[in-house]
Specification:
Length: about 350
C-alpha cells in the first residue's frame, strides 16, 4: 500500500515541475517578443498607400486652360476624371507654394457663398503672419483669386488686395496665425438659380477658381496661375441667410443693402489664353515634390531644431539609453519581470512543501 506521505510527495513534485516549466515558458516567450521588437518585426497591418499620380495639373493647371476638356468620364465609374491634377490625400498641389484643400475639382457648387481653403504655409515649412514672412530664399508675396469661365466669357474678382475687407483684403493677412486661409466669396446676383435651369441659358455653368501666386522659390521669383474647375449648378438663393454673418472670415462682397453684388460691379475683361501663358513664370517642377524647399536658417535664439549632435545607434547593447545614463529602456521588460517573480515565488513555496512532506514522511 502506498503511504499517504509518498502520495503527497508525488503530487507536490509534479506541481513543482509544472510551475518550473511555466516559468521557463514565460522567459522564452518574452525573449522571443523582445527579439522580434528589436529586429523591427512588428506584426501590424500595413497601411494602404494612397495613389499619387505626380501630374502637374495638366493643361488645366499650369498654363491657364479652364480644364473643361478634362471633365471626361475616362471609365471612372461615372465620376469626373481628375487625373490631370496632382492630388494627394485630398490636397491639390499647384505650381506655386499654395496647396488647395477645398473645394475638389469639378465639385457642383451652390449655397450662400463659395468657400475656398488654401494652405499658405508651404506645407508647414514657411511662417505665416503675424510672424515675418520675409525670406531671401522662399516666400509668398501675394495670392489673388478670380472666378472665370471661358465658355461663358466671365471673369469675376474673388480677392485682389484692393481693400481691407474680406475677401478683397490680402489673403496672407487674414486669420493671423492660421496656416490655412479661408476665402468666403458671396455669389453675385447673376449666379442665382434653383439648379433646374438649362446650362447655357444663364450665367451659371462651368467655372474655374483661378489662383494667381506671386512668390519666391529657392532664391528665384515666379508667377503661376492654377485653374481649379468647379460647376456652379446647385441652388443659390436670391437672399443670403442671416446665419452666414457668424462665418469667419465674413463672406463678401456685399452690396450697400447687404445683398448680392451686381455681376458687372466685380467683372473684369477675360484674358486670352495666350496672354495668360505669356504672363506666367512657373518653377521647373512642383514645389515640395519635385523641388526641395529651401529657407534661410534661423539663428540660435529660438530657431528650433535638434539639440546637440547625433548620437550612437545603440550605445548600450543591453537596452536603449535614456539621457546619459545607460539602462534597460524596453517597455515590455517591466511586465515580464513581474510575472517571472510571481512564478518563482510559487515554485519556491512548492519546493518548501516538498521538503516538509519529505521530512514528515521519512
Amino acid at each position: 500500500m502506498i503511504k499517504l506521505s509518498s502520495l503527497f510527495q508525488l503530487i507536490l513534485v509534479f506541481w513543482s515541475v509544472s510551475l518550473v516549466g511555466e516559468v521557463w515558458g514565460e522567459v522564452r516567450g518574452e525573449h522571443a517578443v523582445r527579439s522580434l521588437s528589436q529586429n523591427g518585426q512588428h506584426y501590424r497591418p500595413r497601411p494602404r498607400q494612397n495613389g499619387q499620380n505626380g501630374n502637374q495639373g495638366g493643361n488645366g493647371g499650369n498654363n491657364g486652360n479652364n480644364g473643361n476638356n478634362g471633365n471626361k468620364n475616362n471609365n471612372n465609374n461615372g465620376q469626373p476624371d481628375t487625373s490631370a491634377f496632382n492630388i494627394v490625400n485630398g490636397r491639390i498641389f499647384t505650381p506655386g507654394l499654395g496647396i488647395i484643400l477645398a473645394p475638389q475639382p469639378f465639385t457642383p457648387m451652390g449655397g450662400d457663398f463659395l468657400h475656398i481653403a488654401l494652405d499658405v504655409s508651404g506645407d508647414g515649412k514657411l511662417p505665416v503672419p503675424p510672424l515675418s514672412t520675409a525670406d531671401p530664399l522662399t516666400e509668398i508675396f501675394n495670392i489673388t483669386l478670380f472666378l472665370t469661365s471661358n465658355t461663358l466669357q466671365k471673369n469675376f474678382t474673388i480677392s485682389n488686395i484692393t481693400t481691407n475687407t474680406p475677401p478683397f483684403a490680402n489673403i496672407m493677412l487674414q486669420e493671423p496665425g492660421q496656416t490655412v486661409k479661408h476665402i468666403n466669396f458671396e455669389w453675385p446676383d447673376c449666379l442665382v438659380g434653383d439648379g433646374k435651369e438649362d446650362i447655357g441659358t444663364t450665367a451659371r455653368g462651368e467655372y474655374n477658381i483661378s489662383i494667381h501666386q506671386n512668390f519666391r522659390l529657392n532664391g528665384s521669383e515666379h508667377y503661376s496661375i492654377f485653374n481649379l474647375p468647379i460647376q456652379v449648378t446647385n441652388s443659390i438663393p436670391q437672399f443670403p441667410g442671416a446665419d452666414q454673418l457668424l462665418t469667419k472670415p465674413p463672406p463678401g462682397p456685399l452690396s450697400v443693402n447687404g445683398g448680392r453684388m451686381n455681376c458687372d460691379s466685380i467683372s473684369n475683361p477675360l484674358m486670352d489664353i495666350n496672354q495668360l501663358v505669356q504672363s506666367v513664370n512657373n518653377p521647373p517642377g512642383q514645389p515640395f515634390q519635385d523641388i526641395a524647399i529651401e529657407t534661410t536658417a534661423k539663428d540660435d535664439k529660438g530657431g528650433g531644431g535638434q539639440v546637440g549632435g547625433p548620437g550612437n545607434a545603440n550605445p548600450n547593447p543591453n537596452g536603449g539609453n535614456i539621457g546619459n545614463n545607460p539602462g534597460n529602456a524596453e517597455g515590455q521588460v517591466g511586465f515580464a519581470v513581474k510575472g517571472l517573480r510571481a512564478s518563482v515565488l510559487d515554485a519556491a513555496f512548492a519546493a518548501g512543501l516538498v521538503i516538509l512532506g519529505t521530512s514528515v514522511g521519512w
